[in-house]
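User: I'm new to structure prediction. If I give you an amino acid sequence, what do you actually give back? Let's try with this one:
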Amino acid sequence: MSDGDYLVTVAVITSVMIGSVYVVGPWVLQLLARPATKTRSASTLLAMRRILDDPRAAWRAVGALALLSFIAGFVSVIGESSGPDDWFFTDVVTGVYITIGFGFAVTALSTLMNQSSSVFDRAPETHALAQTGFPTRMFGMTRFNQVVRPLFLATVVTGVLGVALGSLAATEGVEPAGIIRLAIVTLAGIGLTLLALAACEPLERHVLAAQRRRND
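Assistant: Good question. You get back a string of structure tokens that encode the predicted 3D arrangement of the chain. For your 216 residues, that looks like this:
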């Protein structure tokens, strides 16, 4: 196989995998959430039911990161294997890391806005659950399961797929430095989302306190 045919084959496989991420993402979320509802954890059950109610919305929140993580995994391996003198691949890898960093920041901000709005929209449901003995800390755990599980699937799993495909396409040996940098960026991005979720806790306590005062 010539170099041109090889590059075309890699491009076709990459395009198919990128398209598959968007097509099968909601279905995979639904597939994984359904058996997770058979649990004794109230927070997990509630989170999985919310994902099952609208898997497309859950995937839309992280779908862009799935694409970015896949591309980052792919080019991190390709860039490392291309050699230090190949400025093009170096610039591409740097640009992808910057893009995925912004992507994580935007996702964290979107999570903060959406979950904060959800706290107020679901105030009657939250109060009803609290009245039936649902522990307050479980509301935060529900948000964690509802947001972080799809985020983990979108970033870690697709990133690993990108690294695997990049390893196949690499013409030289694969160095671990690019994979390590990708892991650091991914963990930092997930940490930003966790901070956004933590910022919703005071809002929920405020909503519960306001509901109690209104009933009094």
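You can read the tokens as a compact description of the fold. Here is one thing that stands out. The two ends are 78 Å apart (CA to CA).
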